[in-house]
From TrEMBL:
Protein's recorded name: Integrase
Family, per entry: Belongs to the 'phage' integrase family.
Record keyword Ribonucleoprotein present: no
GO terms assigned for molecular function: DNA binding
Length: 190
């Protein structure tokens, strides 16, 4: 069983209780990751590690040592992956081992702790920022004489002002615009 059962206000039956008690620690860890993009990335990262080391099942994580992690990191570097990608992959593995240790699914320590991670060269993201002139040109592009143009300008203004991703803007609802002491606040789910 890899999915947790979602129930309403009723109590769990004895069978459901036993099913939840037998959920593997790794599946429980995945279920606790809220962001679907993070969950997907971590899942791919762990599949990559398991494939490299040759792990067939979750119970085999008990045999993983720091040497395995160091060899994987070296292989990731040889593949030419970016430092940030290698850091994320190691973070995913470290997080899983922390959870497995918490739940006594593995013994000893976290084999990822102490493994040096590549430095990230910049404090800034890779996405280039728009200059003031470019942002003004973008905002002036829609025809504000039409309702569609006014809508498009409003969408662009929200995207630019809040630095939202396209998906974040698409998921906005009316309830996300909140009024706190007379000041408008936009609640973003990212």
């Amino acid at each position: 069983m890899s999915d947790l059962i979602i129930t309403s206000d009723r109590r769990l039956t004895a069978v459901e209780f036993q099913q939840l008690a037998s959920v593997p620690a790794a599946a429980e860890w995945f279920a606790n990751i809220d962001n679907p993009r993070t969950r997907r990335a971590y899942q791919n990262d762990l599949q990559d590690f398991c494939s490299f080391v040759g792990l067939a099942g979750a119970e085999e994580f008990r045999a993983v040592t720091r040497s395995h992690v160091l060899a994987w990191r070296a292989q990731l570097e040889l593949r030419g992956l970016a430092g940030a990608t290698i850091r994320r992959k190691l973070a995913a593995l470290a997080s899983l081992f922390d959870h497995l240790l918490e739940n006594n699914a593995v013994a000893g320590g976290n084999p990822v702790h102490g493994v040096k991670r590549p430095r990230v060269e910049s404090n800034e993201g890779k996405t280039p920022a728009l200059g003031d002139h470019q942002a003004k040109q973008l905002l002036d592009a829609p025809d504000t004489e039409t309702l569609k143009g006014q809508r498009d300008r409003a969408i662009l203004a929200v995207l630019l002002y809040h630095g939202l991703r396209r998906e974040e803007a698409a998921q906005l609802k009316n309830v996300d615009l909140q009024d706190r002491r007379g000041i408008k606040h936009l609640r973003v789910h990212g």
